[in-house]
Amino acid sequence: MSERSERFMNAARLVAVSAGLGTPSSSRLLADRLAAATRERLTADGRPVEVTVIELRDLATDIANGLVTGFPGTRLRTAIEAVTGAEGLIAVSPIFSASYSGLFKSFFDVIDNTALAGRPVLIAATGGTARHSLALEHALRPLFTYLRAIVVPTAVYAAPEDWGSGGDAGAGDLAARVDRAADELAALMRDRPPAAAPAESVVPFAEQLAALRPE
After folding, report:
1. 45 lies in which domain range?
2. How many domains does the chain have?
3. Strand duo 120-126 + 12-18: pairing
4. Which of 105, 112, 131, 142 yields a CA-CA distance of 20 to 30 A from 72?
């Protein structure tokens, strides 16, 4: 095995899920800032970090089909495997009507409700007004607590004024909250053993049936 392959297998797997709908999306921007800050802390320990960002906007149709049929398609299955195989998860949703978006909730509905048990999760959200920040505590945190994830104490909310006139996440108190939340997530990830290598892809049920039919 090459040194590069060995480093990849030992890399900490960090996944950020963004449910932003726009392009560019403030939810994606916040997910990127949180992932970069967490990665910086983990790499300071000398451990490589593999960061994957999942844009739920690109999976909206797949998620709807998965909810209706009960079977995720290839793209959705890949996203689910990334999330359930991660050692740390960052989950970011825009806030609509004082709660997470329907797309965000639907994605976590298609994941087995035991798959995130014991997983460190950093919750974050974006919205048009600072008044929606309470949704982190009355909507997102209870969701991941129900899924038995370990939710870091600091939740990060970003309103338009938090980004500054140039769209800079370093403006104001947001930078301090990002740093504190990244510290907490990185600390929890350090305490977890390296994730096992992903299992081989599951053979679709139709193919399994075809293999059992007589020639």
Report:
1. 3-212
2. 1
3. unpaired
4. 142
